Amino acid sequence: MLDGVHPRLGAKVSTALNVLIGVSAITIAVETLPSLPASVKYYLDIFEFFILGVFVLEYILRVSCSRHPFKYIFSFWGIIDLLSCLPALLLLVPEWQTVRTLRLMRLLRMFKPFHSSRILFRLRDALHLVKGELYVFSVLAGVMLYISSVGIYLFEHEAQPDVFRSIPESFWWAVATFTTVGYGDMFPITAGGRVFTTFILFIGLGIVAVPSAIITTALLETQTNLRPLRDEEKNKTEPDDQHGRDQ
């Protein structure tokens, strides 16, 4: 039921948990409003206690129902479930209520809807399918980031010694430029630097766009591979359903 695969209650339990996670996200955002009345904050705290109780109970049930409890506890999703429950310690130890790290762990609940989602499995299969191509482009991106850092340092260091003071500090400009974010805290002012930046922008667009296209193609391929399996499962279940109706 917790994984959402129970034939009768799985979908209901999974939907209820996902709705609770969504409402929890809204609660976390509302708590930061500076003009929040004390009465509203009081009810939000009560609701937070309720949510923590639900997820602590869920974690206990998952551990107790698992065939290999320790394997689940130390798995990725087991750690996510545990960390999302750790803010409950704030209720037991008042001195820890000021520890922001524990409070921020509530954000890990946002990952829980993917616990039993097939989307992540498709993404995992797609990444495994094109891991070689992604490795090549990762190495290429690293090399280009380094070359960009060196190039912009050579063009701009003399004109802006306080901004482009070293190659490692120029690396931040290269990252912002390659990702086309362009924060504006570091930008070229020389003609050579601007021409160099123009080439880097076009190269950066290609390096970022190509892996995206590769992953999209792999996802479409995994979708195509799943269709025969779904049709086979459907053909297996349809005679059983018909037999049940005949009876």
Write up what this structure looks like.
The chain has 247 residues and is mainly alpha-helical. It has two domains: 10-116, Four Helix Bundle (Hemerythrin (Met), subunit A) (Up-down Bundle), CATH 1.20.120; 128-246, Helix Hairpins (Orthogonal Bundle). It has ten helices and no strands. Helix 8 (131-156) crosses helix 9 (167-178). It is extended and about 65 Å long. The two termini are 28 Å apart.
| The number of domains | 2
Helix content: over 70%
Q: What portion of the residues fall into strands of 2 or more residues?
A: under 5%
Tertiary shape: extended
- Quickly name the level 1 CATH class of the largest domain: Mainly Alpha
**Which architecture of the largest domain per CATH?**
Orthogonal Bundle
Task: Write down the secondary-structure element order.
Answer: HHHHHHHHHH
Mind telling me the C-alpha Rg?
26 Å
CATH topology of the largest domain, anyone? Answer: Helix Hairpins
